[in-house]
Amino acid sequence: MCGIIGYAGKNEAAPIMLDSLRRLEYRGYDSAGLVVSRDKKLYLTKSAGYVQILADLTEEGAQMPGHVGLGHTRWATHGQPNDANAHPHISDGGTIAVVHNGIIENYRKLREFLTGKGFTFSSETDTEVAVNLIQYYYDRSHDILRAVADAARRMEGSYALGILCEDLPDTLIATKRESPLSIGAGDGENYITSDVAAIITRTRNIITLRDYEIAVLRADGVELYSGELDRLTRKAEVVDWDVAAAEKGGYPHFMLKEIMEQPESVRRSLSPRIRDGEIILDELEIPDDYLKSISKIYIAACGTADFAGVVMKYNLERIARVPTEVVFASEFRYNLPPIDETTLVICISQSGTTADTIAAMREAKKNGARVLSIVNVVGSVIAEESDWSLLTLAGPEISVASTKAYSTQLAVGYLVTLYFAKVRGTVTPDAYKTAVDALVRLPDAIEETLKLQETTQYLASRYFSSNDIYFIGRGLDYALSLEGDQKLKEISYIHSEAYAAGELKHGPIALIDAAVKTPVVAVATNKRLIDKMVSNAVEVKSRGASVLALVTDVTAETMRGVAEDLITVSDYEEAFLPSLAIIPLQLFAYYIALQRGCDIDKPRNLAKSVTVE
Ligand code: M6R
User: Fold this and answer.
1) Which atom of ligand 1 is nearest to the CA of 401?
2) Of 20, 215, 497, 562, which has fewest CB within 10 angstroms of its CB?
3) Which residue segment(s) compose the domain that 50 sits in?
4) Does the structure show a pLDDT above 70 at 245?
């Protein structure tokens, strides 16, 4: 998705912004641009293609002197990914420059209005409407803050805007609605960004801009205003992400590095919340009476976060005995199930800025449900607006394919499940103690599982040229199959699907093609269900499939002889086994994508955080 960087300071803006744009590349984009303000003039360079093209055009920024500027990576929504549609956009009058994330939904109406006022347009973007609308109001008031506030009031949809006005060469302005935008408060230099990872090497002091607020940045400080232009004060929060976590640190890809970081990320997410054998969720402050009154839980999330929700659902129902449904946030928001004050909606999101999950959260609240969020980014919209929020402590996740965020979502899901179960009295003291002990040992068990790296690499070399791969599983193994399938398809572009194994006979088994020995990954870690899974593996094998079974050292024996290949993790507490079994599935996808020569950290057409609908 699009990325914004803005700089106001004492140093040269362009080289700093290029560095940040490179850090935003992982989000996915198709064009990039820079504008700097100097001597009451705006200087613009933009181009379709990679940030490197921009760096070459500007000689790493040396050709664009100036101490205040804006940079952008664009992921096309309105119009082709070409030079004209790339950001920044300059207003028809030439006074204002804008970079924009989001979608201005009423842009056609506004474009007509501005055309009627004599404005001309040189791109197909909704952003050019925003910049001209600000120019329109600026021409009337000659007050840039008022112009931004007036324009913001007329725009519908979502936007995060960085704005320069050539009459104020030392000033950078920002405002937002629904799209994320943060301010980095540095020493003699200040930043705006849509993604804190872009500036974390320069400052950790972050102010999250709220909807309709307007920020004014200069080298010596940041001023904050409400949409009505009343002065506001808010202290910066310190983001304690490790700077090295946003760098590759010797690994060929962020994805592999983040897979390897999982023991540590899970440890960070679990250990401060387990004290003397008790799960302590200080941050939650959910009254016990409310917890006991919950009649239904909905989990609303997107993509991998949704699949972490499926694991959570199985555990919540079995251990905490609460009926739970997982609904894609994009469905939930427009097809609201019956909810009331006894409904808890759990929103899971790495970024905390996914447009559909934000909308689902708001709809749930509006209709009387309480919302608990599980989020990785402190201060993000979802973390701030939910009734209760638990942070996953994965650190910055750069690879588009989520791995360590998923693992920490599972971990926090386990804590919530056991905590709820204890309060609701659905778990015996012995079972609770056994489960908490297992949680304490979990990071080490994940570390041990990472030793499967070589075996998985070998298996990937056997399957990488397949056109189709299917995943099957039951219960928690089905939940894992969904994520194994997601990882594989998004980075290797192999067509893959995940099915509940019991559903095979009702349709999907027709896809097995003996001529190509269609590979089927049978996820079969669950002792209770192993016989059923063996039957399903036999069914596909007898129709010509080649079966790769993911088993435990306990279930392996039953599956041996059926599967061509076995990959074995250690047996563990049933509820937490997904945390081990996901490791070989992530590595399998990674090594297959590597063998196919794919752009692993930046898969085609995908974006790290989906801030538009
Ligand atoms: O930031 P979020 O967790 O809300 O993002 C949700 C999905 O967009 C995300 O998990 C996506 O599916 C990843 N590419 C998965 O690897």
Assistant:
1) 16
2) 497
3) 3-240
4) no
